[in-house]
Write a structure and sequence with these properties.
about 260 residues; alpha+beta; Serine Threonine Protein Phosphatase 5, Tetratricopeptide repeat; SH3 type barrels; 3 domains; 5-stranded antiparallel β-sheet; two-stranded antiparallel ribbon; about 60% helix; globular
């Protein structure tokens, strides 16, 4: 099918409008970010929070944005919200020392000290290796090593010298194994970022019930800043599991997903 001039004109106009709107949207977010940083530097933390939240509501995800927002909440002593955004920043930038340090400081201010159950060695090892880099960096390594592997295989097939063929083959095979490994690490990191089964208590205090009902048995109380794992949901209630294995139901409005 051939496109006539009228169709081509429409495509060009739509492309131009999309580019203009996207550029304007990006510039608006940058302007809001600069303004929020200015108010933060002047100690106007509530105003800074308002502006940072506007950027978040524009579906912008960036470790710098979450980190600054966490700092603003920390300055206003809203520890639950501060930990929430530090955790969001950590998901995107797991090796950022500033994020890690501020998260530690905020966690020290929480009332609930929950001792986690020991993890399986393999799960802990995979998690620690995955956190060495971001999803983007693992992907770059995967693609680079895969290209090297393909080049080495090409050299293997084109070489006529037995010793070189052997070297090229084993080198190519090793590079291929590394590429496959880094692919799964990138995939695992991507799944971690998209995973929103963890949440932070943002209410000053919340009661954990045995079932999703007001009149059910009260099990224990959590305070703001406690991190929980979401396991189920039922009509305004969330079933949670703590790192120490305790399970119960909490009101949905009292927590926020990481």
């Amino acid at each position: 099918m051939r496109l006539n001039k009228k169709h081509i004109y429409k495509i060009l106009v739509l492309s131009f409008l999309f580019f203009t709107i996207s550029k304007s949207h990006s510039q608006n977010n940058n302007s809001l970010f600069d303004s929020a940083n200015y108010h933060y530097s002047k100690g106007n933390y509530d105003k800074a929070i308002q502006l940072y939240e506007r950027i978040v509501n524009n579906n912008v995800e960036a470790p710098e944005l979450y980190f600054n927002l966490g700092n603003a909440y920390y300055k206003t002593n809203r520890i639950g919200w501060a930990i929430l955004y530090y955790e969001k920043a950590k998901k995107l930038s797991p090796k950022d020392e500033d994020v890690e340090n501020n998260l530690t400081l905020a966690t020290l201010k929480t009332e609930d000290k929950i001792n986690p159950l020991p993890q399986l060695f393999i799960a802990e090892w995979i998690s620690s290796v995955t956190d060495l880099m971001s999803e983007k960096n693992w992907s770059i390594i995967c693609i680079t090593v895969l290209c090297i592997s393909l080049l080495l295989f090409a050299l293997y097939f084109s070489s006529a010298i037995p010793l070189f063929k052997k070297i090229f083959f084993y080198s190519a095979f090793t590079a291929l194994i590394i590429a496959i490994t880094t692919f799964f690490l990138a995939q695992h990191k991507c799944a971690e970022i998209k995973n929103n089964t963890y949440a932070v208590v943002i209410a000053p205090t919340t009661t954990i019930n045995s079932s999703p009902a007001e009149k059910s048995t009260k099990l224990f109380i959590l305070h703001e800043g406690a991190t929980v794992k979401i396991t189920d949901e039922d009509d305004g209630w969330i079933e949670i599991k703590l790192a120490n294995g305790n399970v119960g139901w909490v009101k949905k409005k009292d927590i926020a997903r990481i």
